[in-house]
Amino acid sequence: MKRILLLATSAAFALVTLSCGGGFAPEAGTPVFGDFTYTGADAVYEQNPLGADEFYTPILQGCYPDPSICRKGNDYYMVCSSFAINPGVPIFHSNDLVNWRQTGHVLDRASQLKVEDTGISAGIYAPTIRYNPHNDTFYMITTQFAGGIGNMVVKTKDPAEGWSDPIKLNFEGIDPDLFFDDDGKAYIVHNDAPEKALYEGHRVIKVWEYDTATDQVVAGSDKVVVNGGVDLSKKPIWIEAPHLYKKDGKYYLMCAEGGTGGWHSEVIFISDSPGGPFTPAPENPILSQRHLPADRQNKVDWAGHADLVEAPDGKYWGVFLAVRPNEANRVNTGRETFILPVDWSGTFPVFEGGMEPLQPKLKMPAGVENHCGEEGFIPNGNFTFTDNFTSTDLDPRWVGVRGAREHFVSVGGHGLEIKPFDVNIKAPRPTSTLFYRQQHNTFTASTTLCYTPRAENDLAGMVCYQSEAFNYVFGVTKCGDKTCIVLQRNARRTSETVASAEIGDRLPVRLRVSAEGDKYTFSYAGRGGEYTDLATVSGDILSTNVAGGFTGAMIGLYATTANDAACK
Description:
The protein is mostly beta strands. It contains three helices and 40 strands. The strands form nine sheets. Strands 1, 27, 29, 30, 32, 37, 38 and 39 form an eight-stranded antiparallel beta sheet that branches.
């Protein structure tokens, strides 16, 4: 692990000459980031190297929750929840379920995404992607908790060519799913509130007929098909994320049950009709980790919110969310996208190994080679991501929160320039911050910054961000007439300066954050100098356990003219 982190540090040193060199000096108050390097070093991957016929799961590490998947021919497409991240709904393409490329985002225009004034865990929930062979059209249906939109659908003939503006759907509730039957009829199933709640967490699943000509539910066609969950007498909570399938003339309704935390699971029902009645399988759940020992090694937890896809060879696979807690049993990387083979040789599908402790690697489908991290395919396991900001097209893994990246970012010959907004990172408004998801419990992230603050309200640097209410700010600012580096801890309504130090006019300055589970160390260095540790702190506030919400931590390149992080 130390060797990997040292290699990452050496790479960052080598890149220093790319910024603030050759006499280049940006205008005071304007930060230029010359590079960014992120290296993951989780022990689980060191202890479990891949064989020639194996691949890692999760297939998408970091905050990629609520996966949904579909197939047209040999093309698989997968989407995930994005909440207040902008652009919204990352979309991935694969031909083999192992090697995935991110082709962009479904919601990449202002007319599609209205999350400017929402908290990080509002916005886009639980997207479902489906292909309708009857009109050769892809659909993405979701709930947008922002902009007065609610449930909505967008569509396209080709996911690579962009998606339509949202069509607002006339029903309440969340987690909508689209199903296209063999006869061309279409249906929507979704989570909703019951007419009368019997207990906290009591929800129902409804089904509607859907008119593909008008892209609207058929008024009056709704009916409740699941009340509460598998067994109402046991007061099951949060039946949600429904998906409807058809196999061998039978209709199957698969749902998450138990909430998105430690009691999360996946359950399934069967019917002779898409309108029910639906009968639960005799053996539910079909996927969960909730019953396993809490102290198991390399624990994966909270498994559920799944979707199924049939491969051309008739084999089924399931994608789902789960988490990998750190040694303090806290979840900083968020809900990630995992995959398992599914045995559907009997009446009901069964996730192979889904009720056993989930393992970090799987056998590849027959005839597939693992190219993850090569040729533009998304890496997983331990890997290094480096961006020298030499391309005007940002890597799709870079995102904003609430506001579009294009409003504050430009890339030129010297690196990434951020136009600072007069907005603090703690405000539930668009901030001038470019984010990269934390994808490992043990990682190092570093950047080279060329920046001269003009006053104490100026700051540029890095941020470790779980939400607007819980984050660390690590940046360069003014302390009176001196230039300083400062680390601020923000936890709900309390902000405090953890540490600060005078750095003078040593440009560029290198900033680094290194995490080993719950322990985060923030370090800095001037041109040609060695790193100095400013402080080591707990990552507790970067966890879902402490901060709440549905997102994972992200690492941001941040600038503001509304700084309130004072020197200590």
